[in-house]
Amino acid sequence: MNHSILSFLIKERLPVLTTITSENANEFREIDDTVILAYLDEDDDWLQELMSEIAAEKHKEFVFGVATDPAVLAAHNMTAPSVVSYKRRDNDHKLLQGQFDKETMMTFLRVGTTLIIGEITKRNIQDYVGVSGLCSLMTLDAWRMLTCCLNSTRNQ
């Protein structure tokens, strides 16, 4: 099945904001290419409400979860409030730690979810160019040549 279709179906199947427990935390972090997981205090109603609002707005783009259980925060070595962008494809996870507002969170979503290595298409070129104004491209042949050169230097 096409990867984009599978990602779309995952987002449609899940609630806008998934409640994370000890039982589903590790599986949830791997459910899609990019997963946004907020680690919040149980009694921080304002940030929980803000995450619900942002998740509702960006649900078609990302999978969102919120963990308020102190056991989950401890198991993941997180302090509240924190938000992590888990990126399965390149493992370049990004952390937003401390109090945040909607503007900070939207910036985090734009910057913290861009893959380091990804496929550039007409649809997503702005994601790569827009972050810093720079974009490095590497063709598969160039990557193979670089890998071959690195391997030969290691063997000497």
Considering the chains and any ligands shown, give keywords for the structure.
single chain, 156 residues, alpha/beta, Glutaredoxin, 2 domains, five-stranded mixed sheet, 7 helices
- The geometry reads as globular
User: What structural class do helix, strand and pairing data support?
Assistant: alpha/beta
Tell me the number of structural domains.
Answer: 2
Report the end-to-end length measured between terminal Cα atoms. Answer: 43 Å
Spatial ordering of strands, largest sheet:
1-3-2-4-5
Which quaternary structure do these chains form? Answer: single chain
Which percent range fits the helix content? 40-55%
User: Got a strand count?
Assistant: 5
Total number of helical segments?
Answer: 7
CATH superfamily label of the largest domain = Glutaredoxin
Major sheet characteristics: 5 strands, mixed
H/E element string? HEHEHEHEEHHH
Polypeptide structure, described:
With 156 residues, the protein is α/β, with parallel strands linked by helices. It folds into two domains: 3-116, Glutaredoxin; 119-156, no CATH class. It has helices at residues 3-13, 25-29, 45-58, 70-75, 102-112, 125-132, 140-154, and strands spanning 18-19, 34-39, 63-67, 82-87, 94-97. Strands 1-3-2-4-5 form a five-stranded mixed beta sheet. It is globular and about 45 Å long. It starts with a helix and ends with a helix.
